[in-house]
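Subject: Sanity check before I submit

Could someone independently write out the structure tokens for this chain? I want to compare against mine line by line before I put it in a report. The sequence has 111 residues.
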Amino acid sequence: MSADKIAQLRKQIGSARDGALLRFSLGQLLLAQGETSAAIDELRSALKFDPRYSAAWKLLGQACLSIGDPIAASDAYHEGISVAAARGDKQAEKEMRVFLKRIETAQSGSE
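---
Independent answer below. Compare away.
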């Protein structure tokens, strides 16, 4: 099912429907399928369309962390926290602060 949905979304890239939501949805599905690098590319594309998309920043951070890149994850969370705070998206801001704190705690424990 997900492979079909991914194919359907990919067909819409470059069309009038292409945008942040399409790329976010595609990134989310790719991440769920274990295609993390492709998911990261799509999430970054989503953020090019809409850099104020809090959920895309949060998912990008999760994707980067899942491939073992805590620096990129931290960068995504820092930016996402700023975006979420500016938009008043308190829940996303809170979640990203928790994720960021976990990274910082893990990094300070490994030094």
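---
OP: Matches mine. For the report I'm noting this point. The chain has a mean pLDDT of 96.
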